[in-house]
Here is the input.
Amino acid sequence: MVVSSLKKKLMGADGDFLLQTNVEIARGGITAIAGPSGSGKTTFLRMISGLTSPDEGLLEVDGEVWFQRETGKKTQLNLKPQQRRVGVVFQGYALFPHMSVLGNLLYASRNSDMAEKLLDMIGLQQLKHVKPPNLSGGQKQRVALARALMQQPRILLLDEPLSALDEGMKALLQDELLRVNSELGVTILIVTHDSSEMYKLCDRVLLFEKGQIVADTSPRKLFVERETTQKFAFKGEILEIRAVDAVYVAVIAIGNNLVEVVIDSDEKENLQAGDIVVVGTKAFNPTVRKFEEQEFDFSRL
Amino acid sequence: MNRIRAAVTAIDCNGNLHKVSLAAGKEMITVITLELADDYTVGALVDIHFKPAHVALAKNITGEVSIANRLEATVSELQKGKLLTDILLDSEIGKFYALTTTEAVERMHIAPGDSVTALMKASDLYLSRVKRL
Here is the structure.
């Protein structure tokens, strides 16, 4: 359990604002930290890791106080980053280029058993003697993840760790994060702008705006339920676009349903398989009729 | 949703795009649709469905119009709103509604008893199979 009631004055593009994080995060979950740039997301992670000092407040992790300063008093406690059991992965890889993958892991902690376990779990066993300059972006980010886990952190802080990767590699690393979370039980906080990533990984989203947590809910409530009640629009993924006659037909996965939508050549120009899209129509267009039993029910798949 | 009963007279396809020709009384109707179930064959009895908002109205129409379907009808009732008017039409193949702007109704002086032409695009029509009892 992470208990945070930290405050810090921040300088923003349009004036100073107060970052205030009164939140309790249960052990073992994956929480998304979302919100526009400059809303305090990264500072929140830095305050947890000890890289940035809060002005005041309390930070307690699994019953252990990491930071404490009451209003108007001197700092009572402020553990150094290396005293906090936190793993950090940022968008940049920050690996030691002259050390092998295994060397990078052992630099974080000289625990070869743990290193071997993580190399297996994150699929790096084949690459353990390779040096970072010879790795792809996705491989480097996996090494960074494994290294962050070497000290068996209580919290893993991820700041847009997958944003520089292509869709396929992103999906692979998302699966690995889920595995790390379930096998090691580590609490994960991830800064991300990607709503499908939040939907896939996270059980909770904290939405930051100008330093305040303005929404604290599930990804489903935030994206799916809200969007569909406001307008007839669904987020989906294009699986295929076929030319048919003088038009194009896109097969789109929306949730667990596959639908076919006719698109024109102008729309087709900007779309391709794999694209995440919004399928929408005006409120005048959809037809509504009673569900009939013999209709194919995708929800049973 | 409007419903008109019709019989399939021809089916033309290109890939999974279909043009279904139908006869409702003396009127010929064309529907463009994607996937079509196997039991839509020539002679099959179907219902054509269309939304009132997808029906355009014309009076004294001349010249060429690309819209595939035209039905001659008589205005039977008007339900006027501030912005939209729901118009009940009577035709040889049954009653149906057209939803249009109140501004258009006033500009065209549409009143009960008037003869109008209802225009429906082939891609705005839906089909459903009439089940045998």
Q: What stands out?
A: Residues 2-129 of chain B form a domain with the OB fold (Dihydrolipoamide Acetyltransferase, E2P) fold (CATH 2.40.50.100).
